[in-house]
Amino acid sequence: MRLKIIVFIIIISFFFSCESNQKKTQNTSETTEIGLDNGRWISTSDANAGVEIKDGTFIMFYKGTETATNSVYAYELTEKDGIEYLHLKNNEGEEIIYGLLEYSEDTMVLSYLNRGSTLTYRKER
After folding, report:
1. For the chain, which residues score pLDDT lower than 50?
2. Buried/exposed 101-117: b ≥16 CB within 10 Å, e otherwise
3. Exposure winner among 39, 97, 105, 112, fewest CB in 10 A?
4. This prediction's pTM
5. Containing domain of residue 97, as a range?
6. 3-state secondary structure the chain
7. Do residues 110 and 43 make contact, with C-beta atoms less than 8 angstroms apart?
């Protein structure tokens, strides 16, 4: 009787482990383009730092200083497997990729994927 119970438990465990592997491999790899609204966003950690989104460009600035040409990026915002990515590329060919963690009317939260740091911005009024 004990042997039957042990065999039954092994079969059930095997069944559930196979089924969970199937679910993990059913991700889609479609990429969808989405956009950001024009506006200025101020960092919550430094009130002088911010970004401006304007007609397809992503401009990093620091109040009181001149914006350098390598701080102006073309951007592409994509979604893949339920995760949104912000791809930036400047005229010098420098590329930066952020994960878009939150985007609302008032807040934008980015994760710099190379370092894992999080940047939080509030919409300038």
Report:
1. 7, 14-27, 32-33
2. eebeeeebbbbeeeeee
3. 105
4. 0.69
5. 31-123
6. CHHHHHHHHHHHHHHHHHHHHHHHCCCCCCEEEECCCCEEEEECCCCCEEEEEECCEEEEEECCCCCCHHHEEEEEEEEECCEEEEEEEECCCCEEEEEEEEECCCEEEEEECCCCEEEEEEECC
7. no
Would you state the structure tokens that stand for residue 49, as one six-digit string?
């730092």
Domain membership flag for residue 62: yes
Tokens of 55: 């007609």
The single-letter code of the amino acid at 56 is G
* pLDDT score of 3: 63
| Main-chain dihedrals φ then ψ at residue 83, nearest 5 degrees | -115, 135
